[in-house]
Structures are given as C-alpha cells and as structure tokens.
Amino acid sequence: MSKFDWLREELKNLREQGLYVTIRRLQSQQGPWVIVDGKKVLNMCSNNYLGLASHPRIKEAAIRAILDYGVGAGAVRTIAGTMELHIILEEKLARFKRREAAIVFQSGYNANLGALGALGWGRKDLIFISEELNHASIIDAIRLAGSPKLIYRHLDMQDLKNKLEEAKDYKIKVIVTDGVFSMDGDLAPLPEIVELAERYNAIVYVDDAHGEGVLGDHGRGIVDYYHLHGRVDLEMGTLSKAFGVIGGYVAGDADVIEFLRQRGRPFLFSSALNPPDVAAAIAAVDILEESDELVRKLWRNTEILQKGLKDAGFDLGNTKHPITPVMLYNEKLAQEFSKRLFDEYNIFAQAIVYPTVPRGKARIRLEPSAAHSEQDMKYVVDAFVELGRKTGFLK
Ligand SMILES: *Cc1c(COP(=O)(O)O)cnc(C)c1O
Questions:
Q1: Which of 45, 134, 222, 241 to mutate to test the pocket of ligand 1 (most atoms within 8 A of CB)?
Q2: How far is the centre of ligand 1, averaged over its atoms, from the C-alpha of 6 (Å)?
Q3: Which of 379, 348, 377 has the alpha carbon at shortest distance from 365?
Q4: pTM, two decimal places
C-alpha cells in the first residue's frame, strides 16, 4: 500500500480509456518545420499563427531587454514588479485594440481568471451567462468568481435570449464568449450577441485568444472584424498565440481596467511578466501595427490548404478561420491518421478526439501559419489525399 495507489489507478484508467495524453518532445525552436522526437517534421499544430515565436526582430528585443532590465521582474505588479516596459506594453495594446486602456497578466488563462474573478467576487446580484463551448480558463474563472451562472447553447441566439430573460432580475448580467472556437474555427455571432446585450443591458466579455493577429484589420481581432468598436465592453486576449510570446491582457474603458488592477487576483498575487517577454510582446505589437503582410500571408496559406482539402472531398466543418478541422469522425481512424502522418509523411498534426470534442466527431486539427510556404500547404493536401485513399476514407 502506498499513499498514491489511488492516483496510479486513475492513470491506468486513463490509459485504458484512450484518454492518456502522450507529450511529444520538441527539440528546436517553434517554426514551420520543427525537430520532434529526433525527426524533422512539418509543424501543423502550433498557435504561432504569424511565425512570431522565432522572428529575428522579436528575439533581438528580448535579448536587449535582458541586458537592460535583467531576467525577472522581482515582484508582483502592485509592489515593485511594474517596470516601464509593462506600462509601454499596456499602452500599445490599448492602442492596437482601439480601447482606452489595457491590463497585462502572466497568461491568457490568468487574464480570464483575473478579470472574471474580479467582476464576480462572490456578488450574488451578478450573473454570468456563458457559452457552452467556452475555453477551460473561462470555466475555471467563473468558478473562482463564485457568482451565479447560466450556460447557453453553442451559437444559439434564441437560447441566449432565453437565458437573458431568465436572468432578468439580476442587477448585473455578464455575457462571456470565446470569439473563435478553437476546435472548429467557427466564430461567435458577435453582432447578434451585442444587440441582445444592448436590449437586456448586459455586459459583453469576449475572449479573443484565436482572433487577434488573425481577424480584422492588421489582426486587431474579432471586434474589428465585425466593426463593433465601442459596443463590446471587455476584450480579453493572449500574447502566446499569434503574438508568439507569453502573457495575456484585457482591454476596455479606463475605469474598468483600473478596477481590475485593484481586484485581479493573478495581478495582485503572482509576480509580473519577465522583462524579455514584455519586450518581445511590445515588438510583436509593433510589427502588427506597421504591416499586415504576415496576416495576409496567413490567410493566403489558409486558402490554399482549405480549398485543396475541400476539393479532395474532406469535410472541414464550419471553419471561418485558419483553424482547420479535417473531420474523420471515427476516433481510431483519427489516431491512426495522426500517427501515419508523422511516421510516413513527416507531418506533425494532432488528432482531437472525445472528450475534447463529442464522440463521433474526431478530427485532425491543422493550423497553418504565415511562416509556412505555399509548397508546405500543397504537401499537406497531397499527404491527406494519399493517406485518405490508403485508409479507404476517401473513395
Ligand atoms: C489559449 C487560450 C487561452 C489561454 O491563453 P494562454 O495565454 O495560453 O494562457 C484562453 N482562452 C482561449 C479561448 C484560448 O484559446
């Protein structure tokens, strides 16, 4: 008997149910081609949409920040951890999002925890109305907030309306939604959400983790994409996906952001982002402000990939985004596809299966980037067609 027999038992169950996560080892920097488990493969599963994670100008900015400011911020933001770099980043992010102010957290996860936690704070006159497929960090954040909640069905505006009716007697109503849903690449119908919110006097909070750097003018995100400036109350984002670094933020009206500085728990109780990360994020925002070339390249690659796969007969669901779910439906087939792509075609692409997506909706999720070449995209399409025929999936 040991103290952890219960835990070994659970690990065994995970393995038996096919839910055990195998973690591959990356032996190079992030990029279109990477070394994984000793082998050079085409990387189709990172969120590094613009290739900024290894961009020379961003690396340079991080190195310079280490020389000027050192490697650690030394404290939480409210004690001695706020460096001028943090303030510069927040000002640049606010400008990029066309908002009055922004607050930076250590990650997107922390940004949701900080912001939603601060809004709720156990208030019983506030209710969260949350999308069914929202990211785990939103689910955790609402749990931490400790206020009542209602869940509305995925993209279902009639159901959102019903929930707003149900929540009528609460003084404060907060609609929370992902902008882009990460497993399908479909978009929240933000114009309709905003209209309902205005009718019911609800706050709108959008998690734009997969939208920024991808959607809208110069990658300003989903609010810009739908031309909804001034009508969405809070926009949360991450610096770890298209921006290629680490960190998260929330942008909005100055007084609301000031409130988050007073009440955001990860802001108050966890040390500030490191200087090189902050400097790298500043360089990423600068690159996007200066040019939309990378965003356009990302979309060109997306078009080649998605058109090629669709023409070959693959079902890509309802994606409106570079996130490309190649539907294989069957869990075993999806796992086999992913393994054979790696072994036979040197393509690194993940199978997404239950419980991340419903049973019978297994898929390979591809994520193209601006750093890929058009040749890379054609190579992926050809590999899918060949493997699709070999496995009997494509007739
Ligand atoms: C990735 C992601 C997050 C978390 O961001 P991190 O910076 O990785 O912590 C939050 N929300 C959504 C929708 C995401 O996709």
A1: 241
A2: 31
A3: 348
A4: 0.96
- Distance from residue 108's CA to the centre of ligand 1 (Å): 5
Task: Quickly tell me which residue has 């402000």 as its tokens.
Answer: 289
Taking the alpha carbons at both ends of the chain, their separation in whole angstroms is 54
Pick the CATH number of 56-290 from 3.40.640.10, 3.40.50.2000, 1.10.10.10, 3.30.930.10: 3.40.640.10
d(CA 135, CA 207): 9
Q: Could you tell me if the CB of 209 is within 6 A of ligand 1?
A: yes
Fold designation for 25-52+292-390:
Aspartate Aminotransferase, domain 1 (3.90.1150)
Place of tokens 């497993």: 183
Alpha carbon of 344 to ligand 1 centroid (Å): 32
Give yes or no: 171 in active site.
Answer: no
Regarding the beta carbon of 135 and ligand 1, being less than 6 Å apart is answered: yes
User: 305-351: per-residue pLDDT in tens?
Assistant: 999 999 999 999 999 999 999 999 999 999 999 999 999 999 999 99
Rounded Cα distance between 145 and 260, Å, is 13
Which pLDDT does position 189 carry in this prediction? Answer: 98
pLDDT of residue 18 exceeding 80, the answer is no
Q: Is the CB of 214 under 6 A from ligand 1?
A: no
